[in-house]
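Side project, low priority. Logging it here so it doesn't get lost.
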Amino acid sequence: MKILLLEDDFDYKNSIKDYLESLDYEIDDFENGEEALSAIYEKSYHLLILDIRVPGISGYDLVKTIRENDNNIPVIFITSLTDINNLSLGYELGCNDYIKKPFSPKELKYRIEQVIKAFYFSANENYIELNNGFLYEPLKKELIKDDIKVNLTKKESETIFCLITNKNQFVSIEKLRFEVWDDKYINEADIRVCIKNIRDKTSKEFIINQRSVGYKIERKS
């Protein structure tokens, strides 16, 4: 799961990054709002964690810009601002949550988990039912069959996460390349090999494909 972190306090930023990386999140960190905005359009992220008062453009203006461009990626603001007008502005612009500084690492962990579950899955789901008797644990990104965890490589796990979060919609090769391989060049045949390896570990029907359209994993819930 990829997270963009925007925080201009160097020590604070590094402490957040180190903690989230210890939870196996992939973190790209920035101190400048303009650089963070450019990265959002160059790469694919599942969540933005943004300080409000930063060099370049503010966290508010960054969210305003991406929402005007129909980018609905979830956003958590981290801020020392407590004025109700400031907090209201963030929600009006389209943020999903606020965390007031100072905060504990565990509070951040739980806020992230709740935003991710509410946006990509359902806040009440601990497991997602898939076809062929498989269950998916969204926060741990674990695939389970008959109470046994399926052993997946990192790219296989990220591919499954990408397909499940797109909720029964076909995902193109181009989107898989963008989200799973960070838009780095990779041969289409290599992506198909990854899909085949997942099917070998699950079933031939686990990932459905439609020629010239893409791949999907069907969710029952």
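Brief comment: The first helix runs from residue 10 to 22.
Revisit when time allows.
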